[in-house]
Design brief:
Layout (H helix, E strand, L loop, with lengths): L8 H7 L8 H10 L6 H12 L3 E5 L6 H11 L4 E5 L6 H5 E8 L2 E8 L1 H8 L2 E5 L13 H4 L4 E3 L6 E3 L5 E6 L11 H4 L2 E5 L5 H11 L5 H19 L10 H11 L4 H8 L7 H14 L1
Parallel strand pairs: 1-8, 1-9, 2-5, 5-8
Antiparallel strand pairs: 3-4, 6-7
Helix pairs in contact: 2-4, 9-10, 10-13, 11-12
Pfam families: AAA_5
GO molecular function, one term: ATP binding
InterPro entries: ATPase_dyneun-rel_AAA, CbbQ/NirQ/NorQ/GpvN, P-loop_NTPase
Length: about 290
């Protein structure tokens, strides 16, 4: 396999053999990164794309673990990762950097402070663009050249042409259909390999709760796994918004449940984040049934 990175030898061996889904070494590497995928192929496909120098777009509901997925990839590749958090206020300075006054040999000079895009390109590291569809459509075309084979951008503040160092790559994340989001234009979307990130369920979710929260009571952990399954099913049926099934919120509830009663933990971590009273009552009824 052609690669642009110095991958750990054990990962390279896995990518080049058929020992992918049941390799114990690889499973341990996944756990070290912090993201346990519902299907190992998700991680294999993401690693394969990045090792070929391709950008990946993590698509999935809020709280499904997209950011943790990106952090795990950064850990596996031993690559630092610069972050861009998109919003309607995202502008060229937020991406590229800004000019500021500084002093050199007692004289006032204009200095340029690099932003996450220029820092990642110059350092040959990963760039993570979170909620990429929250940015204004006119902002992101600035980095189109960064995302294709050219791997270059003209810094609008210095007129410098920046070419990415070897090892630079882009991971982006997207929540589709949310208020404030806009559809990605085809030119931008075509620059990515898309990885669909579903909610964790069943044994994978149980393992995540055991390894990432303070909750140790296996009976209560099993009830939270069941609650999560019920919430995900209700979201799929249109009874709840995706926010109700956030794995991040569920982990918070599990943490709190190590100290306070589970139903109160669910109230603080999940129910009170919801906007509609109907949804709040629905989740409280689920919690009452289980706990």
């Amino acid at each position: 396999m052609h690669t642009n990175y110095n991958l750990p030898k054990d990962i390279t061996n896995i990518l080049n053999t058929n020992q992918r889904t049941d390799d114990n070494t690889f499973q341990e590497l996944i756990r070290q990164g912090g993201y346990v995928p519902p299907h190992t192929d998700l991680l294999i496909d993401a690693i394969s794309a990045l090792s070929m120098g391709k950008n990946i777009l993590l698509k999935g509901p809020t709280g499904a673990g997209k950011t943790k997925f990106a952090e795990t990839l950064s850990n596996l590749f031993h690559q630092p990762m610069f972050n861009v958090n998109c919003s309607v206020d995202l502008d060229a300075e937020s991406l590229m950097g800004f000019k500021t006054l500084a002093y050199e040999d007692g004289k006032q000079v204009i200095d340029f402070v690099p932003g996450p895009v220029t820092s990642a390109m110059n350092g040959g590291t990963f760039l993570y663009i979170d909620e990429v569809n929250m940015a204004k459509p006119e902002t992101l075309p600035l980095i189109n050249g960064v995302l294709d084979y050219r791997r270059t951008v003209t810094n609008p503040f210095t007129n410098e042409i920046i070419t990415a160092e070897e090892g630079f790559n882009v991971i982006a994340a997207i929540n589709e259909g949310y208020v404030g989001t806009v559809p990605l234009n085809e030119a931008l979307k075509n620059r990515f390999i898309v990885i669909d990130v579903p909610y964790l369920e069943g044994e994978q979710l149980k393992e995540l709760i055991q390894s990432n929260t303070r909750l140790t009571n296996n009976t209560i952990i099993d009830l939270f796994v069941t609650l999560s399954s019920d919430l995900i099913r209700s979201v799929a049926q249109g009874k709840l918004s995706e926010e109700a099934a956030s794995i991040r919120a569920l982990l918070d509830a599990c943490d709190l449940s190590s100290i306070i009663p589970p139903k109160r933990a669910i109230l603080r971590s999940i129910v009170d984040k919801l906007e509609e009273e109907r949804e709040k009552e629905f989740v409280k009824n689920l919690a009452d049934t289980l706990f």
